[in-house]
Design goal:
- The chain is mainly alpha-helical and 253 residues long.
- The chain has one domain: Cytochrome Bc1 Complex, Chain D, domain 2 (Orthogonal Bundle).
- It has 13 helices and no strands.
- Helix 2 packs across helix 8 and helix 5 packs across helix 8.
- The chain starts with a helix and ends in a 29-residue tail after the last helix.
Length: 253
């Protein structure tokens, strides 16, 4: 029985690998004329001295409606917390949205040159978002099997995302600690099925055989990790004190 199951999984992984390879080839062809230009532009953004005041203005214009005045997103809606994310990661993800390596028409529009401009504007908004404290009340998922989730995380995730999910500045690996559980689950599924085309190939391979129980356990564990830059209870972003916080964007399906 175990051999049959193992053989089934092996063929499943081979088929998936072939599908992902074909998809990657198609995407590379589609973006071969634009990707180098975007990469050069965003590499420049990494080196620039950011203007936080301009970053605040850009955040208000393009980010606040979906991610909220604190940058905390909306639990259960599909809109992630972006506050406190590593500046380098924000720059990298904006590059991927602009190049079409991530599927989100709204973000692709807001990251375009027509909206966000060039490298300086990218550096500015990334620095402002990165400076915001993270929410003390993220969607944490489930309290059950957190020890199992930690074991899986330590085995499969810690090498890249850090011991506590803090990410990596130099390698542009995202901070995932304290992120909304619902967003983590959705991105995990998109990475596994190839929809998120900027995913690390090693990660795609590692998570293929993870069961729903294991996925729930590890994503709940990650959501429960408390970052070191959490805002105090009741904190409101003083830059946007008059923003209507009762408004919520439509849920992403």
């Amino acid at each position: 029985m175990r051999k049959t199951r193992h053989a089934h999984r092996t063929w499943k992984r081979i088929a998936l690998a072939s599908l992902l390879a074909a998809s990657a080839s198609i995407q590379a062809e589609a973006f071969k004329h634009t990707a180098p230009e975007h990469l050069k532009e965003f590499e420049e953004a990494l080196k620039l001295e950011p203007n936080i005041d301009n970053g605040r203005r850009l955040f208000k214009t393009y980010c606040i409606t979906c991610h909220g005045p604190e940058g905390w997103g909306v639990a259960g809606s599909g809109y992630p917390q972006i506050a406190g994310q590593l500046k380098e990661v924000i720059i990298k993800q904006l590059a991927d949205f602009r190049a079409g390596n991530r599927d989100n028409p709204i973000m692709r529009s807001f990251s375009s040159r027509r909206s966000l401009g060039g490298p300086q504007e990218i550096a500015d908004v990334a620095a402002y978002v990165s400076s915001l404290p993270m929410t003390p009340r993220n969607d944490k998922g489930f309290n059950l099997r957190l020890e199992e989730g930690k074991r899986i995380y330590d085995e499969l995730c810690a090498d890249c995302h850090g011991e506590k999910g803090e990410g990596d500045h130099k390698k542009h690996v995202p901070r995932i600690q304290g992120q909304h559980y619902s967003y983590l689950m959705r991105q995990f599924n998109w990475i596994r099925n190839g929809r998120r085309r900027n995913a690390d190939k090693k990660m795609v391979e590692q998570i293929q055989d993870m069961t729903p129980r294991e996925q729930t356990a590890v994503m709940s564990y990650v959501a429960h990790i408390r970052p070191d830059n959490v805002a105090p209870e009741g904190w409101r972003n003083p830059d946007f004190d008059n923003f209507d916080r009762s408004w919520r964007p439509a849920k992403i399906r």
